[in-house]
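Deliverable D5.2: sample structural annotation.
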Amino acid sequence: QAQLVESGGGLVQAGDSLRLSCVASGRTFSDYDMAWFRQAPGQERTFVAAITRGGDNANYVDSVKGRFTIYRDNDLNTLYLLMNSLKPEDTAVYYCAGERASRPISAMVRVGDYTYWGQGTQVTVSS
């Protein structure tokens, strides 16, 4: 069974940057499409970004386009989310997710599209 462990969260000010990491183990990382979701207090978990297993295609929610970049290093079994120009509304617990079934990455935007999940890392952006 695949295991995903996120790190890199923290408390930052608006306009700052953070890079989240998600290290995968237990399976062949390059067999999985990967994604980042986030969940703010009292709200549902929502899609942030996804990337194909080869790293050649990505998809983003509109609210983070131009600010966030998802990328991966298959040699290091690691998924990243580089977050620039952070806003208070980006405050949430961020989760990485993985799925082996091959579907168009543009369609993989729901929680139910992913089988494997990490435990989450808190990102807090102060104004």
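Annotation notes: The chain has no helices and eleven strands. The radius of gyration is 13 Å.
The annotation will be released with the project's public dataset once the embargo ends.
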